[in-house]
Specification:
By secondary structure, this protein is mainly α. Helix content is 75%, strand content 0%.
Length: 208
Amino acid sequence: MSEHKTPGEQGLRLLLEIGPLIIFFLANAKANLVFYNDPAQNIFYATAAFMIAIILSLGVSYSRYRRIPTMPLVTGVFVVVFGTLTLVLHDDIFIKLKPTLVNLLFAGGLLGAAWFDRPLMKQLFDGAFDITDEGWMVLTRRWGYFFILLAVINEVVWRNSSTDFWVTFKLFGIMPLTIVFAMAQVGVLARYATDSDTPETTESESTD
């Protein structure tokens, strides 16, 4: 049985997930005007702000729901670890590589689970949709391939564009692409929907 979430709860969960990325973008955009004369330094200030924002986001999520979803937790750990390396070594390659490694980790986990006929997306989404295990398996494979695509896109963008463009693309490129992909899976939800909501038919009883 899926848990019903109000629009307010859904909005809060979405804000907790994309809020740190918005902070990352805004901090990078404003850092040069406020703190630095060298635009190359923006990414370091933005990385620090990103780390703080994602820690706060995970803290709020745990405080409100007494749990942290797997994907935001893994992403948060990678942000803190690679963000720390970025700041300590003063090298932005670490924060730029983070999305590639996280996406490949997710892809490997999902496709590896699919190889052993385990619909891992069902656990990651907490069974939020009433679909069959076959449907969950389809979603597991599709999201696995999609994470590989995101890893490739991240590598292409950060290696062939400026840091400012890469930060902007993370918010205005990757995020819309992910939303469009997620919406494209509605057909899977409809095709593999269970019949749990269908009332059982019973024979009418006649009385003498």
